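Escalated from tier 1: adenosine monophosphate holo job.
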Amino acid sequence: MVIVKTIEALQEVQKKLSGAIGFVPTMGALHHGHLSLIQQARKENDHLIVSIFVNPTQFLEDEDLDAYPRKDAADIKICELAGVDILFMPTIDVMYEEDELCIGAPAIRGYVLEGEKRPGHFDGMLQIVMKLLNLSSATNAYFGKKDAQQLALITQMVKNYFMDVNIIACDIVRDENGLALSSRNVYLEGEEKQRALSLARSLKRATKLIMAGEKNVELIKKEMLLVLKDTDEVEYVAIVDREFNALERVEIGNTIILVAAWVGKPRLIDNIWI
Ligand code: AMP
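Tier 2 regenerated the structure:
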């Protein structure tokens, strides 16, 4: 594995590649969720590039940019063991200059749910993903369904800008109790770990209702909120189609149920695809 930190070094090693390039962008503090993307990309491509970059432009002013968990040494080991060929770890000044040209999230889908609660987050996310996709020259780029709205917006960006890359959606990885893995789970303390499970439990409750024939979105959301009483604050419960349009009735095969809630220090998100 080679570790590269500059654009020039990345382009230099890339020149020698032929065949399919798999790419997995991350913000580091790697866990089994990231690893599942890396393993799938390893299997499906001739070459594998992973990036680790905590992107400042997708954090809002009052968010945890400075406190975001960083574990470079462990991450490098994980990538090495997982068979990564190129690990790209740029600094902020490598990725950005002053007075940048920016692309923005779409006015409707980019400003509901996560986009409404974190205005500007998706603009910064799309800006960095566009840069990284261009730099990686990826054939296939891998993203987790855990960040479902992010995945939908990246898919839309690739379509709208005619970018030549396949976006591959990867399943959510959970711990043995059902908690969706996240770098921010390290903030959970003591009993909060137990209360954090109510997000996954609320999604299970919704699935059970749907399996029993319930399609009414309002009723399902009400039932989910009962389960979510264990959290400190629910930001949203939403039932949308795969393009993030609101639904009145569940459409099997075209529905995502999402939840965002605070438990102790972290803000947690989870979802299930129906
Ligand atoms: P992050 O480092 O949080 O930016 O995540 C990098 C990639 O890993 C994104 O595509 C995430 O959606 C994905 N990811 C994060 N957590 C999980 C998980 N628990 N299961 C599957 N993918 C995940």
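The mean pLDDT is 97.
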